Amino acid sequence: MWTRYGNGLYLSATQELAEGATQEILERLKVLESRSGQKEIAREIDADALLGTVEPPTQKYTWEKTKRTSIGYFIDRIGDLNMEDITREDALDYRDWWMKRMLPDVVNGKPVKPAKPNTANRHIGNMRTLYQAFFTHFGEEERANPFRKMFFKGETRSSILPFETKWVRERILAPGLFSDLRLELRVMIYVLIETGARMSEICNLMPDDIHLDSNIPFISIKPRQNRELKTPDSERDISLVGVALEAMKQCPGGFEYYRDKGELVSANLIKAFRQRDLLPTKNHVIYSLRHSFEKRMLEANLDYALRCTLMGHKNDRPAYGEGGSMEYRRDEIKKIAYPVQKNMPI
Predict the structure, then answer these.
(1) 17, 75, 98, 230: least CB-packed within 10 angstroms?
(2) Same domain membership, residue 132 and residue 73
């Protein structure tokens, strides 16, 4: 399906897309399968070298890994086809396969947890995106996408519940509750609470993204060469107030130990929250802190455009500004900030 390189060069999936050699991904997956009778093990062991990701993990790496997984699923079910040979029928077959995976099943006498609609939508969407990117590169932007208009209704991220304000104030912000955690993890908890930023955005802050010496302290969420943001609207400046400001002073250079390790941070924090009984329901996760920030802004009647700016969401209303000055942002966030206890332990 894809032209093999004879020089042994290892290119990332993104580079291959850009250079018109995206089919190389599927060829490399075939090599992985030939190296082991157990495909999943082969992918885990050999994927870094064969798929061009020998550099340290980054957000870009995580993004590419998801795309490669989606391609692997497609190969397992449909086969290793030429891009131009993928038909609507193939795509429908792939969709039906995911539909069956969402049904309860039993394998070897043991129940198998069904796939969620979100999972199926993500992998089908990845194939749709890759197909479009491939033919767009060759100037066929109008080519009918066989994965078009395929979407399963069901659970979405909205099922994640926000922490109630009282719960955060009385339980999560209890003095000394996280004293046994690494300083960086403790600081990130407080920064997440008062900024509504995503975990990956916080743990990847660079020293020049943190402006503690400014008249109005703030952090900048911005893309880097090897680190993309979730959306263009995610680029923004967030004023630091309350517990976030006090905590950030303890890590003025960012979180070097956890940089590009968002999954590790999430795993450590969810474990810490479970051990302290800080998750009221199964629908509460660390990401609930972001939902809580948004909910507090809404309930305090903060301006819609400002809420979009601070959350990194697209503003679907006519734009009359850019979210206001830093002074305005600070003053508005202060309206919902949690009180900082005297001699607050970080």
Answers:
(1) 230
(2) yes
